Amino acid sequence: MTTETRTPAHKARLLPQLIKFGAVGAVGFVVNLVVFNVLMLVVLVNVPHKTLFATAIATLVAIGANWLGNRYWAFAGNRSDNATREGVEFFVVSLAGMAIPLLCVWVSHYLLGYQSLLADNISNNVVGLALGTVFRFAFYRWWVFSPDRAAARAGRTERGLISAGSHVPSRPAREKAPITGSTLASAPDRGLVGD
Q1: pLDDT-derived band at 182, boundaries 50, 70, 90
Q2: Are 194 and 150 in contact (CB under 8 A)?
Q3: Residues 100, 135: contact at Cβ < 8 Å?
Q4: Are 162 and 134 in contact (CB under 8 A)?
Q5: Strands, E, within the chain: which ranges?
Q6: What is d(CA 127, CA 92) in angstroms, rounded to the nearest whole number?
Q7: How far apart, in whole angstroms, are the C-alpha atoms of residue 119 and residue 102?
Q8: For a tag on the chain, would you pick the N or C end, based on fewer CB atoms within 10 A?
Q9: Domain ranges of the chain
């Protein structure tokens, strides 16, 4: 398969992947909101500094929900066999993505002097959320769930089988389909969004 034919298909899968990422993020937002409010109103009622604890716990639960949604749905075609490595990388990117709205609030509130509730909400929930979302999507797509990593894993597996004495046919031989009259048999299965 040539680069010319792969590039448009690769770009065509970006929009559905972005939509799925947004849907997973929306679910994560709802999870965060529900967990935070349940903790504040039911579980941590008489606990000192309950807001900080509720924020931390709700954020961690939402990150976990987002990881599952992104791993098994939005980036399902590119997920790694090493779920631990992938989970740690996802968590690191999520924490870095959380720092972006904090930085936006700090710049707006302390550096620029906009100290109203409206200004804090705009810097956190509009500018910070938008920049954080772009950051997370980019790092999830091109680092945590990178198609290049999936291709490298497939190459290592193929080389391992060959060195162990197993016969693995060359790529063109594997991609040829039996003559059945159907063009579907010759199309490689790339999953929902993967390369």
Answers
A1: very low
A2: yes
A3: yes
A4: no
A5: none
A6: 21
A7: 13
A8: N
A9: 12-79, 82-145, 146-195
Listed in order, strand segments (DSSP E) in 62-128 are none
Amino acid letter at 153?
Answer: R
CA distance linking residue 145 with residue 30, whole number of Å: 24
Q: Report the C-alpha gap between 142 and 69 in whole angstroms.
A: 17
Per-residue pLDDT of 61-91, as tens digits, reads 888 898 898 888 888 877 777 788 888 888 8
Residue with tokens 């606990």: 47
**pTM assigned to the model:** 0.57
Angle made by CA atoms 133, 72, 61, in degrees to the nearest 5 = 60
Helices 129-139 and 83-106: crossing angle in degrees, nearest 10, is 160
What are the C-alpha distances in Å from 193 to residues 5, 70, 88, 185? Answer: 16, 11, 22, 19
Q: What is the pLDDT of residues 86-128, one digit of tens each?
A: 888 888 988 888 888 778 888 887 899 888 778 877 887 788 8
Q: Select from 124, 118, 119, 89 the least CA-distant residue to 104.
A: 124
Contacts for 164 with CB less than 8 Å, ≥ 6 apart: none
The owner of tokens 């770009």 is 11
**Token pair listed for 164:** 């162990």
